[in-house]
Every structure is written in C-alpha cells, then in structure tokens.
Amino acid sequence: MLIAGTTSDAGKSVVTAGICRWLVRRGVRVAPFKAQNMSLNSFVTADGAEIGRAQAMQAAAARVEPSALMNPVLLKPGGDRTSQVVLMGRPVGELSARGFHDQRRAMVFDRVLECLAELRRTHDAVICEGAGSPAEINLRRSDIVNMGLARAARLPVVVVGDIDRGGVFASLFGTTALLSAGDQELMAGYLINKFRGDVRLLEPGLESLRGLTGRPVLGVLPHRDGLGIDEEDGLRLSTRGTVREANTAPPAGSQVLRVAVIAVPLMSNFTDVDALAAEPGVVVRFCDRAEEIADADLVVVPGTRGTVRALRRLRERGLAEALARRAAEGRPILGVCGGFQVLGERVEDEVESRAGTVEGLGLLPVRIRFDREKTLARPTGRALGEPVTGYEIHHGVADVRGGEPFPGGCRVGAVWGTHWHGMLECDGFRRAFLRRVAADAGRDFVPAPDTRFAALREEQLDRLGDLIEEHADTDALWRLIEKGPPVGLPFVPPGAP
C-alpha cells in the first residue's frame, strides 16, 4: 500500500510508521519503503548505507533492521537547485533538480522496483510512503515515488490530508481530480490527519466527499502533541521561537537547563537534540540571532550540508562573535558534524562548496579537509566514563591538533566537537554530559536518573500505532494490503462539483 499526501508535511511519515507498528503488533512481518526521499536528516545502517532518518524510524516502528532497500534514492539538497544523489546508500554525484527529474527514471526506476520486489518477497506487507503530493502534475512523467510507483507495482493508494492547515476537503478532492483516469483507479480512499474537536462535526463533509469522489475516508486521526519524530526536512523548520519539549516532567534540581540550537543553513540531522529535549527540565530552542543564545546554558551548533555557507551566516549575524565570547567565558558549546567543522581553525573545501581554504571560528584546534569519499560509519567508544555509540555522515576529514580527546573530535575547556551523530541518545553519556554542562553553566540542574531515550521512542511509536488502531478503519486498510486496489472506482473529472 502507498501512503500519499495532499502536501509535504501532511503526515505521511508518521501515518506510515503508525501502520507499520499496528501491523507488527498483529504479528505481521512488515517493512517500510520510500522510493525517493529528499532530506538532510539521514541515518547509517548497520552495513554502512545512508538512508533517510524517517525510514529508519519507520523500520523501528516495524521492529526490523533499517536497510538501503527501504530508501533506495535519497536526495540531499546542497542549495536551491542542486542535490547530492545517494543511490542504495552510497553517494553517486551532484545533480541539478531539473537534471535529476529528466534522468531519474532511466537512472534508478528499475532499481527502485527491484528493491520493492525484494521487500515484498521477504515480508508479509510493505507500507510505502510517497513524497510531496501525487498531484504534482509537472513531475508526473518522471515520477518514481508517487503514482508512477503505484502504477508500476499496482499499489492501492491512501491519501493523507492535514486538516489543521485548513481546506482539507478541497485538497483531497483536488488531488483526486488532477490525476489521470489510470492513476485514479488506484486511489482507494483518504485519511484526515491532525483533527481537533468533535469528529461528528466532520460527518457532513465526509459524506459529501464520498459522494463527489466515490471514495471513503478511512479514518480521522486526532491531533497529538509530541509525535513529529524524525522530521525529514530542517529547511522547513520554523526557527524563531521553536521549542522541543518531549518530556514535561519537572527537573530533579531547582533549575531548568536552557539549550539553544543555532539554525544554520542546510541544517542536517537536527534530530540529534531530541534526546536532550527528552530530559525533564531541559528546554531546547532553535534560534538564529546572537541575542537568542545570550542566556543559554548550552549552545549546540548542529550538522549542516553547507559548512562554508554556515560559517558565512554565523559571521553575518554576529553569532560567530557571540560563540567566541562564550568560549572565552568558559560557557558550554557543542558542535556536531558540520557544527564541529565550523568551530575549527580552517576548512579546505574543494568538494562541497568548492570555496578553497576558509578560516573557521578557531575555537577548537582542528583543521578540516573535504574528501570526495564520504565517511559512513557506526563507531563506538567511551566518553566521560560512559560507553558511547554514534554514526558518521561527512566528507570532512578532521586533523585534530590538540585539546582533550573526545569521540569523533576533541574538547577544549567547555567547547566540545564531534563528527558523531546520535551520541546524546546514549543515556549514561547524556547524563554525564549534562552534569558537566550544568556545572560549567553554574546551574542547579540534575539529570533524571531513569530517562531512557530508546524507551521514550518506543512509547512514541506505540502511540502512532494506537492512533491507527483506534481511529482508522483497520479492516479496510487490511483489505487493501491483502487484495490490492478496489475495482470499479469512478473517475473524477476536474471541476466535477
């Protein structure tokens, strides 16, 4: 089955994860699949392949090991018009958006169908996620992830609409009406997402939509806070005033710990800070102005696919000076991956930006040289007396020339840098790190001794499964998975009402 959406951010990823969790709880061997993902949030599988983090999250929902089969094509934007193309977990080059759309069927569609066939062979069910909207008619001819995939594999399609944005009935009808007759044959029904209020108020609209399209609404999913896990795209993140509060329990000490995450350009793997937000008493805020980090106890410079561009932005907005003042005052800073690179002495980049040698912020004794080969790894180590694991996704090679050893990087005073993503998900290390940060910041903050990030993530995935089980027509969903698209669905011409 293919889960499509009226727009990006309609809820395709979480609905796909929820269906995977519902099915696996019924004893079904299920796998997620997204033919093509555009995202700067990625993950490294056990065999060293890079895939979208949303597919890794969906694999966790399905209780299976993530694999490149689940996301054969990953596009990582490097600007407004170019992306790095990652095929079967390995980067194969940079292409313009137009160039990729012109070439992608010839380049990858056979491989996409082979991956889907392999997952179908080894699992009872495969829940596929679309991208953007299936009604992007300007891209239909080269589509491999929405109706192009559904037509090739004869997949029933369920379209998700976000009612919180408004206009959901128009969006669902318009999406259907813009499709060709052949595509409409596969569109089996709709899911309405993020509803607030009494569902009985929707019933006249649900009946009218079915009358207009001949297709049922298969569920109305209520709005739930805290379920936007592993978002795909940091480019859509609203930076000013954005707070992530995964855990609202009171802090163990008398004070909270305030974390400011600098929203650098082309921000990647910003989900690294989710584990901080899961700690009681830790408030995480994304910001992009120097004055917004002045009262922070910890400033995080996250990953980016534009290290040189991020350096330019930090200098333009006065953030470089603010970070230098923090370092001189012994106030904590953590740089992760690209954020680690900008804290170093210099960056030699003939690969990503082709800017040559650019001076870094000089807060860590590190020199970065970009290599054409990408490092993709799942390292392990120890830090602050605790075991640490992580994953690496970077072209920059670090020449660490001093400071204290730290996994994937180094530390000088209260400035920490690492190429490792995911370290903060290690509970023992995270608590030790936060204790050190609180001491350096002069805060009476004590990490909770029993916060387990993996368990919190499991609870979130179970909540997604509950949403599907309690608010969707699971019998109808199961019939679609088992029997394929229904027959005899009417054609909906544009302007039918």
From TrEMBL:
Catalytic residues as annotated in Swiss-Prot or TrEMBL: C337, H421
GO terms of biological process kind: cobalamin biosynthetic process
GO terms of molecular function: ABC-type vitamin B12 transporter activity; catalytic activity
InterPro entries (UniProt xref): Class_I_gatase-like, CobQ/CobB/MinD/ParA_Nub-bd_dom, CobQ_GATase1, CobQ_N, CobQ_synth, GATase_3, P-loop_NTPase
Residue ranges of every copy of the CobQ/CobB/MinD/ParA nucleotide binding domain listed in the record: 2-234
UniProt pathway: Cofactor biosynthesis; adenosylcobalamin biosynthesis
Matching Pfam families: CbiA, GATase_3
Gene3D superfamilies listed in its UniProt record: 3.40.50.880, P-loop containing nucleotide triphosphate hydrolases
Residues of the CobB/CobQ-like glutamine amidotransferase domain: 258-424
UniProt entry keywords in alphabetical sequence: Cobalamin biosynthesis, Glutamine amidotransferase
Task performed by this protein: Catalyzes amidations at positions B, D, E, and G on adenosylcobyrinic A,C-diamide. NH(2) groups are provided by glutamine, and one molecule of ATP is hydrogenolyzed for each amidation.
Annotated family: Belongs to the CobB/CobQ family. CobQ subfamily.
The protein, known as: Cobyric acid synthase
Organism: Streptomyces alkaliphilus
